[in-house]
Sequence to fold (310 residues):
Amino acid sequence: MEDINNTVVTDFILLAFEDFLQFQILLFVACLFIYITCIIGNLIIFLLILVDVSLHSPMYYFISRFSILEIFFVSIIVPKLLDILIAGRNRIGFVTCFFQLYCADTTGIAECYLLTVMVFDRHFAITNPLQYLIIMSHCSTRLAVFPWIVGLVVALIPTIITASLKFCGPNIIDHFFCDLAPLQNLACSDPFVSNLVTSIAAIIVVLLPFILIIGFYTHIIIMILKIKSVEGKRKAFSTCSSHLIVSSLFFCTGITVYVKPNDSQHDKFLAFVYTIVVPLLNPFIYTFRNRDVKNVFFKLLTNFKLIGKK
Fold:
């Protein structure tokens, strides 16, 4: 009896999108295209901000760090999904699975808090424009590191508690990456504490940042409405619109999946949205909705064309 209760599972099987076997190749091509586009798009944003002096401001500094974070986030999840879709290698080792879980949770939490830092930056710029550059220039690095610290620390707790559960079979995960709820549902021991810790952590790292973002934006809108000039209002709104769209997409799906995890079939598709689709959209949102980034991009593109003609 004691042997049954001990963990005997050495690996897990990720079903991914096995229900759509006839579309595996199509899904592979789509995911590969999304992954490459996401990497290139976020890398371009990072390099544009890095090389052009006009974009060396706290706001664009945070955007560049968010782009790098997105690259890490998708690179933790998508390569294994591609391997499953094209080669059918859907097994993942016990330790590797929990390592992927920890890395994905760390970067996901870091994104939540970096998005909060970014809206705080916009709030401070609008409410204290005279002190903004002086103060934020000294604090931007620390504010960019803070989300990583929160992610590394908070993600560790539910990961360790879930990994300490007993897994004696089955080992089939109906998901495309190792996530907390599917793993907890496979445990032979009582996952109550693990579920409780996961829900508390989700409130701290998803719901709390979301509430803070709503609070900041409420005050930002109130402050913008007090601006007398139409041009001033337009400029203030334009600096916030891209971030608002990204935050809405990310948090709406994240809250649905994690604040009350139930490992439903819908969670897998919602997870696909915020882990793969949203990171794809972010470079386009920040590029095509941001006049400064567009100007720098087309200026560099024109310079490359002129060099090519020579």
Summary: The two ends are 79 Å apart (CA to CA). Residues 1-5 have pLDDT under 50 and may be disordered. The longest strand covers residues 11-14. The beta strands are 11-14, 91-93, 172-173.
